[in-house]
Amino acid sequence: MFDFEAISQAISGKTVLCVGDLMLDEFVYGEVSRISPEAPAPVIAAKRSEINIGGAGNAARIVASLGGRCIFVGLIGEDDAAARLEAVLAQESRIECVLVRDASRPTTRKVRFVSDHFSTHMLRADWEHAAPASGEVEQQLIDAILPQFARADIVLLSDYAKGVLTARVIRNTIDAARKLGKSVIVDPKSLNLAIYRGATLIKPNRKEFAEATRSRADSDDAIAAAAQDAMRLADCAAMLVTQGEHGMTLALRDGGTIHVPALPVKVRDVSGAGDTVAAMLALALAAKADWDVALRLASAAAAVTIGKTGTAIVRPDELRRKILPHASLAAEDKIVAAGGDIDAHLAEWRAQDLRIGFTNGCFDILHPGHVKVLTAARGACDRLIVGLNSDASVRRLKGEGRPVQDERARAEVLAALEAVDLVAIFEEDTPINLITRVRPSVLVKGGDYTREQVVGHEIVEAAGGEVVLVDILPGHSTTSLVDRARGGKA
């Protein structure tokens, strides 16, 4: 369970030490309408261009855009690309750069030509020297990295195999981090995962993982099995395998596995998606989020990134909309009348492999205790359905004079909460029929209930789901509020 606002606030105070290969990313956009008369190649009529900080620098940008701070250590040449990179970096107030210069190598630069009409990459041109840094430069990098640990909450190594993260730089960085008790996230490039020995989390994509482990990696079970050997070899606590539209699978050294599905999104550009996942994970773990929360945040952040063109950043408000996609809907769009059709919603969410949660109540006068339960319930799932007793049901349960507000008013107040994705009104005294229909993965009630008292717990647990009890806020009761309003003593 997590409170999005609370974790966003926690993230804003964290500093990530990011070490890796810095690049200048340039995107040239235009129309392609003819073939060159000189050769069988398309001609792009360039209309505009954009310059971004790329490679490991993109991870730094995302850390900053999400509200964190980043200390970035990298390598540049002494050329025009380096000057342009420094000018762009100087505009990033939340990124502090410690850059080592090597006049013997060019600053890595990538230029992508993109068709506006088709939203596809036509060509990429690279300027780079993808060789390990020399011994002298290697030592300068180590000397630049080590003094930064005192100000960092977590370390992110972003390896693009362009020369910064040599075996010696990696070893010195991870050993220093472990000595100081700081976690290390690695976005790897080397297929020899043992080179990152001692990291907290290693994050290969499925192709990299399959090649590194010589496994098929074609299912969660196959990934989990291959990851155990890889984690022993790399002496890491966890391994996250990203699988594009198939989501992400985290294998833990203690044998646990967590799979998080990819969120539905129209893919515009996958550039930088891996950087986004790594940056979001670093911030979330620095903020003491658990694995499940960190993964869900990373999945949502990646969905934001690939929905944009170029190596895009992620703002907190964009992340919030991905985590709480129904927050912007009108209240009436989130209400299903008694006997209404919720099957379409359920089918859509299940097709996306989303975790559906359920809670219920009369919610006659919404108070802070209700809000706490609803917020906690939404934190335990991807979509939250609230079962709401109809007026007739409330009257049978609470007696004459109740409810104070009719079911439509109560439903609209609930639907206005961003934690709530759907309000389903039911006529019966208990929501057992609704729970049977929904088959939620998570059933949430206030802590004034025991597990055995929660209606529907047998149904949910028999299907592999869980019952979550949330501590209630003392002193908050609808009945006492109604009594006080009517001049009672409660």
Topology record:
Elements: H1 4-11, E1 15-20, E2 22-35, E3 42-55, H2 56-65, E4 69-76, H3 80-89, E5 95-101, E6 109-115, E7 120-127, H4 135-145, E8 154-158, H5 167-179, E9 184-187, E10 201-202, H6 206-213, H7 220-234, E11 238-242, E12 248-252, E13 257-260, H8 273-286, H9 291-306, H10 316-323, E14 335-336, H11 343-351, E15 356-361, H12 368-379, E16 383-389, H13 391-398, H14 407-415, E17 422-426, H15 432-438, E18 442-446, H16 457-462, E19 466-470, H17 478-485
Parallel strand pairs: 1-4, 1-8, 2-6, 4-5, 8-9, 9-10, 10-11, 14-17, 15-16, 15-18, 16-17, 18-19
Antiparallel strand pairs: 2-3, 6-7, 11-12, 12-13
Description:
With 490 residues, this protein is of the alpha/beta class. It has 2 domains: 320 residues, 3-Layer(aba) Sandwich (UDP-N-acetylmuramoyl-L-alanine:D-glutamate ligase), CATH 3.40.1190; 155 residues, HUPs (Rossmann fold). The chain is built from 17 helices and 19 strands. Strands 5-4-1-8-9-10-11-12-13 form a 9-stranded mixed sheet, sandwiched between helices. The chain has a 6-stranded parallel sheet with strand order 14-17-16-15-18-19, sandwiched between helices. A 4-stranded mixed sheet has the order 3-2-6-7. Helix 2 crosses helix 8, helix 8 packs antiparallel against helix 9 and helix 9 packs across helix 10. The protein is elongated, with a radius of gyration of 26 Å. The two termini are 33 Å apart. The model has no long low-confidence stretch (mean pLDDT 90).
Number of strands: 19
Mean pLDDT reading: 90
Radius of gyration: 26 Å
**What structural category characterises the helix and strand content?**
alpha/beta
CATH-assigned homologous superfamily of the largest domain: Ribokinase
Report the span from N to C terminus: 33 Å
* Low-pLDDT ranges: none
**Major sheet attributes:** 9 strands, mixed
- Can you identify the CATH class of the largest domain? Alpha Beta
